[in-house]
Structures are given as structure tokens and as C-alpha cells.
Write a structure and sequence with these properties.
Layout: H1 3-15, E1 31-39, E2 45-53, E3 60-67, E4 71-78, E5 86-89, E6 92-94, H2 101-113, E7 115-116, E8 119-127, E9 136-147, E10 160-165, H3 166-174, H4 181-200
Parallel strand pairs: 3-9
Antiparallel strand pairs: 1-2, 3-6, 4-5, 4-10, 7-9, 8-9
Length: 202
């Protein structure tokens, strides 16, 4: 990876590192647990707990933004419960009630980084944690993304963004800078589309 880009990234990471962490006595406002007794077809009953996020099941849209130059736009955010307390990933957000995955993807791209794609390709999806949640993440590849808006972040949301080549992003994965399952899965599913796209322009 280019040394100047790596330095830029390290500065962004340093800016968002957690320097203090104190447990609050407040009751949870976003996460809750529901308990179910489930009877199986074999006559057995098991008790399971279900994780609820907000008012919905917590399904999310995850988007890999690719510019006309085949650069990737990564996001850097506080992830305080990880060892590094900062995560490098791609734009993502919860799918709101009465909103499609595609609508959520376009909204999150605009809010988090201010980019708009010319085309959005569905890459399928996966369950976040099928043992305790019904949340299903939908994955997308945004093509020819252009910067058209300023960020529009929620209060308490801190997101920096960083543009690099697709190859450099893969290097960051190999260097363990990118470790989140949402991002790793989306990159893996997007590789064939990006390879075909590059071959087309040769």
C-alpha cells in the first residue's frame, strides 16, 4: 500500500480511538432480549433467547462503494468493544420499517459518506447471528459512486471516510486492518463483479 495512504489512514484511526470507557447504570434503550419456548417437529421443546435491535429485528444494508476509477470508499468508525476500539469497514446501516434493502443502501451511502452510485448490484445476504436473531443483512455493490453531498450523520455518530484502490483495500484485509464480518463478506462476494468490470475496460 502507498505509504502516504497508510499514513492518512493511521491518522484517521488515531482520531477515533477510545481513551476512556466507563460502564453506565442506564437501562438498555436499543437492545432487548425476548425468550421463546420452541416446539420442534420431533416433539422436543427448547428455550431460546432472541436479540431485538431497536424496533425491528436489526436487518442491515451493507454497501461496497466503487468509484468510476475503481477506487473503494472505506469508513472508519469507533468500535469500542473491539481490541483496537476503531473499525475500518464500508457504509452500512439498519433497514428501517417499510424500507427496502436497496432504499436503505442508497440512504446510508448518502448519509455516511455523501456518495451516490449510478447502479446498485445486489450481492445476496446472510443472517447476522441465526442462533439468537432473525436479522438478515443485505449486501450491495455500488458502481460509479460520486461524491455529491456532505455527510449527514446522526447525533453521536462519528464516521470518517477514506478512498483507496480496490487492491489496497485487499491489502488492508491481509494486514488485519479490516476485520469486520460484514465488510469481509461483501468484499468476497464483490470480487467477481469487480474483476469482470476491470477486464471490460482493458
Amino acid at each position: 500500500m502507498r505509504s502516504e495512504k497508510l499514513l492518512e489512514l493511521k491518522n484517521l484511526i488515531e482520531n477515533l480511538k477510545t481513551v476512556d470507557l466507563k460502564k453506565s447504570d442506564d437501562n438498555p434503550k436499543f437492545l432487548k432480549i425476548e425468550t421463546y419456548d420452541c416446539t420442534l417437529n420431533n416433539g422436543k421443546t427448547i428455550r431460546l433467547e432472541k436479540l431485538i435491535k431497536g424496533q425491528n429485528e436489526g436487518s442491515a444494508a451493507i454497501i461496497l462503494p466503487l468509484t468510476k476509477e475503481n477506487n473503494v470508499v472505506l469508513t472508519i468508525e469507533p468500535r469500542i468493544f473491539t481490541k483496537k476500539t476503531v473499525g475500518i469497514g464500508i457504509p452500512a446501516g439498519y433497514i428501517e420499517k417499510n424500507e427496502s434493502g436497496k432504499e436503505a443502501a442508497l440512504r446510508e451511502l448518502r448519509e455516511e459518506i455523501g456518495y451516490v452510485p449510478s447502479k446498485l448490484i445486489s450481492l445476496g445476504g446472510f443472517y447476522q447471528d441465526e442462533g439468537c436473531s432473525s436479522a438478515y443483512n443485505q449486501l450491495f455493490l455500488g458502481l460509479d459512486c460520486e461524491k455529491k453531498y456532505d455527510q449527514n450523520l446522526d447525533p453521536g455518530e462519528f464516521v470518517k471516510y477514506f478512498e483507496c484502490s480496490f487492491e489496497e483495500a485487499l491489502e488492508l484485509i491481509d494486514m488485519n486492518y479490516i476485520e469486520g464480518g460484514n465488510t469481509l463478506t461483501t468484499f468476497a462476494k464483490a470480487k467477481k463483479y469487480i474483476k469482470n468490470r476491470k477486464n471490460k475496460f482493458r
